[in-house]
Amino acid sequence: MSPVRPPAVAGTFYPGQASVLLNDVTTLLAQARPGANLGGPTPKALIVPHAGYVYSGATAALAYGQLASGRSSIRRVVLLGPVHRVPVRGLALPGVDAFATPLGRIEIDQDAVAAIAHLPQVVISRAAHAQEHSLEVQLPFLQAVLDDFKLVPLAVGDATPAQVAEVLEALWGGAETLIVISSDLSHFLPYGAAQKVDHDTVQEMLQLNSSITHHQACGGTPVNGLLQAARQHHLQPELLGLCNSGDTAGDKSRVVGYAALAFRQELHNDQFSH
């Protein structure tokens, strides 16, 4: 039997029952759609939060709602998020054939794995992925908004932004490849302080400033790698939503910040970017 990474946080971060989960995700996406720029080009990359859906699901849905036009064209999702439980050096692949959620299995893109296997910062760690929620919570959204895609899941530990950008470059591809960076913003600040810190962090992201610290964003390393690559490829960032757990389902004394951003190819820059 080929190894499959089973869901670790189904029933805690999101519903464990398929019908309830699909209903929740569909509802979140429907609520996000009125604000979605459905006429624009499909984003090349997204930054999305990774808390429990009751906390950050509505913010994540603002990003995934942008993918409607790419439903059938996106065939590969390169998904990066920080490790929370098992430290790892570099960017860790899971060493499995598929990831499972209550909504079904997602095959790992073995061609993509082969394309980055030679890079010294790419390692294999099943342990780093086993309990990691930062990647898993994105999967039901992807399963709801895309038809048929394969996954390149990378759990990012001790690495540099340049090492992350090098991996993204190797997998950049064309319209068939979507990059998703999973990161929350500030952690456990009082509500007002968090709002200010997170606002400043988002401004740095919108300026493609790849020096975000881990105090600003737990996924600072993969975020910085994307921002570096986005500069290189002339991507245009857009803020879709910004809030914190005090706005959704938590108290306001210690909050966690959430943002959704989309990065699109600047059409008029295409001629200069090759």
Can you describe this structure?
There is one protein chain. This protein is α/β, with parallel strands linked by helices. It has a single domain, classed as Protocatechuate 4,5-dioxygenase, Chain B. Helices cover 34% and strands 23% of the residues. It is built from ten helices and twelve strands. The chain has helices at residues 18-32, 53-64, 110-116, 126-130, 133-136, 139-145, 161-170, 191-206, 220-232, 245-248; strands at 4-5, 45-48, 76-82, 91-93, 98-101, 104-107, 122-124, 150-156, 177-182, 187-189, 235-244, 255-265. The strands form two sheets. Strands 2, 3, 4, 7, 8, 9, 10, 11 and 12 form a nine-stranded mixed beta sheet that branches. Strands 1-5-6 form a three-stranded mixed beta sheet. Helix 1 (18-32) packs across helix 2 (53-64) and helix 7 (161-170) packs across helix 9 (220-232). The N and C termini lie far apart (44 Å). The relative contact order is 0.19. Mean pLDDT is 95; it is low at 269-274.
